[in-house]
Amino acid sequence: MQRTDTCPSVSTLAEAAGIHRATFYNHFDSVEHAAVHVITSDFRALRALDFGDRQLGADPASVALATLNTMLETLRRRRSLFLLASTWQSPSGLMGIGDLLVDQIRNFRHEFGGDEQQSDADSAVEDIYTACGMNGVLSATLGDGLDGKPEEIARRLYAALPDWMQHPRTAAP
């Protein structure tokens, strides 16, 4: 995709990876699903850096803004990949990287806590709502439907996050 900026076939991907088509299908149900997997790897690495910085006592707002900005920059560099991933519907029914974002938010909630008075059902709704909103902002940004520099978009996205994400409790050691 980086060389041609078009959607490769499973055969092309398998050949480039040096694997058989059957091996590809053992791991992914489509090229779009493989694109989601690549973005998932990028975002897991970002979350690990974010968590590490927070563990070292860095300012939560600065860390969050840096992480959101890096997410935007990463996806801009991989725009074709993101657009391809955006067409994948996960088994949960969410499109694109929706499940990935829900997973990231749930991990963040586990590590830094949300409203402990909130029920699991309320937390689930809030996590999905937040993830879908983030996915919408990312999609609009990469689809040129949202103007602004990544830093400004990251700042606006941060301001729209739930309060517990903006002001998380200190992580457990």
Q: Could you list the spans in which at least 5 consecutive residues all have pLDDT below 50?
A: none
Distance between the termini: 41 Å
**Helical residues, percent:** 55-70%
Number of helices: 9
Shape: globular
Question: What share of residues are in beta strands?
Answer: under 5%
Structural class: mainly alpha
The overall pLDDT, averaged over residues, is: 86
**Largest sheet entry:** none
Radius of gyration: 17 Å
Describe this structure in words.
The chain is built from nine helices and no strands. By secondary structure, it is mostly helical. It is globular. The relative contact order is 0.13.
List the helices and strands and how they pair.
Layout: H1 10-17, H2 21-27, H3 31-55, H4 60-77, H5 79-85, H6 98-112, H7 120-142, H8 150-160, H9 163-166
Helix pairs in contact: 3-4, 3-5, 4-5, 4-8, 6-7
Task: Spell out the key features of this protein.
mainly alpha, 9 helices, 173 residues
Concise summary:
This protein has helices spanning 10-17, 21-27, 31-55, 60-77, 79-85, 98-112, 120-142, 150-160, 163-166.
